[in-house]
Amino acid sequence: MVAVYIDIGSNIDREKNIQSCVDELQRKFPDMVFSKAYESASFGFKGDAFINISAGFETDLSYADLKDFLKSIENQHARKRSKTKFISRTLDVDVLLYGDEILRPDNDVPRAEILKFPFVLFPLAEIAAETVHPEQKKTIAQLAKESDLDKNSLTEVPDFPKLKIQ
């Protein structure tokens, strides 16, 4: 089993798409933990604000199989793929950490966005505070504390998503 952390984001039918994704993930990984949900302005383009949430779970899926599973969830939500990196999305599910693996250059794991965007780092720190970043050799809590990223750019979305507690 490997500990995995992911980021879930949407700026199109945000609540509906993220809730549906969370429901699907909980069916496969019933012991998932979730951060609070946060709203933040779109980055790199003009578009509606995003909601992002981090989730953590353990799996015996290989990285490739996990990536395929997450991509299938995105596809179920009419995710449009484009060569343009910054665009509106019905659903974006990214693997942030896959155990202590460093899967570059073929895959962006650990995800570079952990250190670049407050909407990735701060929710991740809520659920993976003591997890050590495989490249930085610091805990996620340390990285968040030392970060120059603007935590005030995030607005908590209270009582979302509606989690099914087993």
TrEMBL record:
Alphabetized InterPro entries for the sequence: Hppk, Hppk_sf
EC number: 2.7.6.3
UniProt keyword list: ATP-binding, Folate biosynthesis, Kinase, Nucleotide-binding, Transferase
Domain 7,8-dihydro-6-hydroxymethylpterin-pyrophosphokinase: residue ranges: 5-128
Matches recorded under Gene3D superfamilies: 7,8-Dihydro-6-hydroxymethylpterin-pyrophosphokinase HPPK
Pathway membership, UniProt: Cofactor biosynthesis; tetrahydrofolate biosynthesis; 2-amino-4-hydroxy-6-hydroxymethyl-7,8-dihydropteridine diphosphate from 7,8-dihydroneopterin triphosphate: step 4/4
Lineage of producing organism: Bacteria, Pseudomonadati, Pseudomonadota, Gammaproteobacteria, Thiotrichales
Organism in which the protein naturally occurs: Cocleimonas flava
One annotated GO molecular function: kinase activity
NCBIfam families given in the database record: folK
Pfam families attached to this UniProt entry: HPPK (PF01288)
Name of the protein: 2-amino-4-hydroxy-6-hydroxymethyldihydropteridine diphosphokinase
SUPFAM superfamilies the record matches: 6-hydroxymethyl-7,8-dihydropterin pyrophosphokinase, HPPK
GO biological process, one term: tetrahydrofolate biosynthetic process
